[in-house]
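Target chain:
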Amino acid sequence: MMAMLSANAQVMASLPSPTESIEVNGRKAKPVSAWVDFCNRHAEECAVDTNEAAVITMTPNIWKQLVQVNRKVNRDVKPVTDMDHWGVADKWDLPTDNKGDCEDYQLLKRKLLAEQGLPRRAMRMTVVLDEEGEGHAVLMVRTTQGDYILDNKTSAILPWGETNYVYVKQEGNIDQQWVSLGGVTSPTTTAKN
């Protein structure tokens, strides 16, 4: 209920409160193998255009776009495991049939936001350990207000430090190489499922 109230309040907010950006240590990390397969099938979704901005200038309109896309995808896509959906342990794909798991939600959010003109380079697929220690994928949006997380577990967009996640790695914004986030733990425990 609290996440829903936060999500509703976010629609009314002109801008989110500023937050810190996560520190990316720059060490290379092995990409998720299902990501590599996804990129082989959808090269346009994985291409890095270094002419795009690596950070989005946050405006009330951009915030509204983020909130609306996050809520729409969370509402429209039905959760299903990759094993039940595809018969494999891990497959990243766009949920064209409105079914998917965590990374599928985030890939669709990024696609829709990029179609609205936001730079894909500032929207990074990110692997975390969730509050139960399980692997989970979120979309980190790097902005001038800080780094925010779009997640299928809540329709509230949270600053990265308020998710109660351990940040493992994310796709790089210079090339297709992934980078380590060094297992940075978010400093608070405010996230609710």
